[in-house]
Amino acid sequence: MKQVERQTFLIQRLLDEQPRYKGMQIPQDTAEQKRLLRSLMNVRMPKSIGEDFLTVQDEYLQEETAAKGVTDIADLSPISDGIYLWQGDITTLRCDAIVNAANSGMTGCYAPCHGCIDNAIHTYAGVQLRLECARQMKLQGHEEETGRAKITPAYNLPCKFVLHTVGPIVETRVIPDDERLLASCYRSCLELAEQNGVKSIAFCCISTGEFHFPNDLAAEIAVDTVKKYRGNMEVIFNVFKDVDYEIYRNLLG
Predict the structure, then answer these.
(1) Does 220 have pLDDT greater than 90?
(2) What is the reported pLDDT for 171?
(3) How many angstroms separate the most distant Cα atoms in the chain?
(4) Which residue from 20, 125, 139, 152 lies 20 to 30 Å from 69 (Cα-Cα)?
(5) How far apart are the first and last CA of the chain?
(6) 8 A C-beta contact, residue 226 and residue 203
């Protein structure tokens, strides 16, 4: 099956799941198809689906990631002992674990094609990730506390694990509790990673962006906490924006 055939197969199966989508036509344009597929995956509630869907989905997502290009930690140069700075798409990074900036529901972003990292990670990991997150949350019985972390397989991502952590949301100005909770996010991820034999971990810029934590202060807390608690683990500070790259380069350089 070619990639475009996989794409239309997956779209049709997701459309067939919901009576409200009955009669909806699949667009002819490949880019529009890709956007529709991502949207359908984003809004889909965590529920089981057939192995035939998963097989095609896995082949599709792995080829999509390969086309974007995978970066291996072995090909990166540390900026200091055991610490790396890398600007790029975290869903294309091959290391033991990547960190997802999650919300308290912990089952991903449900906004179609939203630009947050939570949306991207769930999209390219596949529907299995939402199912596993939902399973863990059902067992827990309540929303995830800010500053804590959970670990899941990475499914179709190049890494082995995803660590999901809920950062603090800054309402008007940063208060000491916000700083404490952000540091707890990094510490919780490192502790959980160590318990699961993780040797290399990539952190995104937790709580910046949608959660409004100032980028420079968030980076200072991240670097300080990682240096205190990383042990022998290799740590990648993954940034997407130029402004964050400059902040981290100045802190680490």
Answers:
(1) yes
(2) 87
(3) 57
(4) 152
(5) 48
(6) yes
| 89-136 confidence digits (pLDDT tens) | 999 999 999 999 999 999 999 999 999 999 999 999 999 999 999 999
- Find, among 147, 159, 160, 157, the residue nearest to 190 by Cα: 147
Kindly give, in sequence order, each residue whose CB lies less than 8 Å from that of residue 235, ignoring residues fewer than 6 positions away.
82, 83, 84, 200, 201, 202, 203, 226
Residue 130 to residues 85, 89, 186, 234, Cα–Cα distance (Å): 29, 20, 22, 27
Count CA within 13 A, CB hemisphere, residue 197.
1
Length, in residues, of the chain: 253
**Residue whose token pair is 């949306």:** 119
Residue 154 is classified by DSSP as -
**Do residues 149 and 192 lie in contact, with contact meaning Cβ atoms separated by under 8 Å?**
yes
E strand segments, the chain: 71-72, 83-87, 93-94, 97-102, 149-153, 161-166, 200-203, 234-239
Distance CA 141, CA 125 (A): 24
- Between the CA atoms of 93, 98, 104 and 107, what dihedral angle is there, to the nearest 10 degrees? 60
Q: Is the pTM of this model over 0.90?
A: yes
pLDDT for 39-89, tens place per residue? 999 999 999 999 999 999 999 999 999 999 999 999 999 999 999 999 999
The 3-state DSSP class for residue 84 equals: strand
